[in-house]
Amino acid sequence: MLRIGFYQFRPWFGQVKKNLDKVIHALQDVSADLVVLPELPFTGYYFKDRQEVTALAEAVSDSATVSRLVDLCKERNFYLVTGFAEKDKEKYFNSALLLGPGGIIHTYRKIHLFDEEKVWFDPGDKPLQIHKVRGVNLGVMVCFDWIFPEVVRSLALLGADIICHPSNLVLSYCQDAMVTRCLENNVFAVTANRFGADKRSQGTLRFTGKSQITAPRGKVLYRAPSQREVVHVEAIDASLARDKSITARNDLLHDRRPDFYVS
Q1: For the chain, how many structural domains are there in total?
Q2: How far apart are the first and last CA of the chain?
């Protein structure tokens, strides 16, 4: 059995060290194999402009935040997927990192930018990938990627057993949509959302919470309350994600007819 979970909390905008301290404290006694954090959990989300991103983003290879998170992975012997405001030369990405006791494993850059993110960030420029962790295949996407079925389907075709989904969800129906994504691809998903609001000079943006762990066949194993801090871990049998049969004659992936699909 694999122990997978999330930490749902409310970050303070622009207070990277304070948010990092909060995460370290919340996870210091957690027993898990994999923990997923929300999107942009250290910087906060609702940027005023690209200049704020420039001031708060970090290069992955030279980040005090990443260094402390890797140390946490070593101390707790788990893997972590976290949102991250990434600087790469003159570009800035809404990214997610896969970290483990051995260091940085993978950086995913959000492909589908939501609303004002198109002003703040550059669009992701790396292909979707999977990575094997403790015998299971992990895929990573970020928040608004959920609305594009192609993302989870692509990860499933690559062999993903679990979709790690750091999020700052503001629309009310994503959690239910992830039930469908897990049903149509027969995968697990960990959607780690934040709650509360970013109150900025340009307005207030409120987040929905309700982080959840969803199983194959669309079963919700656990959904957090809307506006409460929660650490939750579930034990799962990841092999359930490898059976793509619907009936004795139907397979979710092998029955596809891509020659009839419009791209």
Answers
A1: 1
A2: 38
